[in-house]
## 1
Amino acid sequence: AQTVTQSQPEMSVQEAETVTLSCTYDTSESDYYLFWYKQPPSRQMILVIRQEAYKQQNATENRFSVNFQKAAKSFSLKISDSQLGDAAMYFCAYITTSGSRLTFGEGTQLTVNP
Amino acid sequence: KAGVTQTPRYLIKTRGQQVTLSCSPISGHRSVSWYQQTPGQGLQFLFEYFSETQRNKGNFPGRFSGRQFSNSRSEMNVSTLELGDSALYLCASSTGLAGVTDTQYFGPGTRLTVL
């Protein structure tokens, strides 16, 4: 069974600085997608970034980028120039290309200090 | 394009009652998935519907059921509510093209409280 692990229950960062959230996963599949979602206090789950496993290039979305290490099954999220609005629970998630269920990690609560 | 909508946003029920939650996907999306989020269990997959057919089901008792209509709107039903069913229920939609569920976009959720 696929599992996703986020080893950092809580992280904090100063406004304008950079923070990296960690995620590891376990799968026997070769083709899959990985995602980072954020869930602010409103509880709306918002897509942050997506990575296709077959792509070697790391995905980037503005201030958000990932470090995808397929062999190590690692998928970390880097947030640059952190803003107060980045404060949220961040979930790493996995789905196979043939599946239909997202498997989520436990989440990392990110606090941004002014 | 409008996002995923869920109704109602909040619901309070008592044990033994049943409840129906509704989800309208993004226009053009044919796949709808449901997840339960609780502090203890995290986010757990309930089921997925595609073209009015249940394509996948999570490990939940038969009290949890769902359906999808021809316009892709979906409902989930929980019968004989238990205290442990108190949770945030999230609906997500994706294009579901070629039978593959790729990026799922979530609605705001329905907060169910069982007293």
## 2
Amino acid sequence: TQLLEQSPQFLSIQEGENLTVYCNSSSVFSSLQWYRQEPGEGPVLLVTVVTGGEVKKLKRLTFQFGDARKDSSLHITAAQPGDTGLYLCAGLNAGNNRKLIWGLGTSLAVNP
Amino acid sequence: NAGVMQNPRHLVRRRGQEARLRCSPMKGHSHVYWYRQLPEEGLKFMVYLQKENIIDESGMPKERFSAEFPKEGPSILRIQQVVRGDSAAYFCASSPNTALYEQYFGPGTRLTVT
């Protein structure tokens, strides 16, 4: 069974701090997606990484796909209260009939 | 381009009643996924459909739950004879027919069974 483990499960920081959250698996994925979910809403796609070692930036957010395509990280610089939410990663195995494998998420709270 | 639409946003049903959840995918998207989410449990895959076909229903309970995505109209997730344990947020996502299989989510339907 393919699993995606996200860490930490919960994170509470002060505005302006930097943070990194992780998404790890023993399985290889053809691509990996990051989503952010706010309370009462559906997840919103942030980025998709495809190539091993790939780095993508979205303003203050930096996403990296591991060289072996088994893990990924999300780094946020100078966090703001608007970054608060549940960050979910989801991996795609091309042979898995289009079904994403989801992590349980990292719940981030950025305090003003 | 309108996003994924779900209705109702909130649904209250008494035990034993039927719940019918609707999802209209983004224009041009032919793939629909249904998920269930409980606090502390993450997103649980239920079913994946294309127009008029169920592709993967491995996450859906075999009894009381059914899903369809007709040629015309929205996708429907139906829960018959609801029980309190069915209370959850149900999300629908759609994706275009591309290799990345990126999913676009609706706002969800929060089902409460009393």
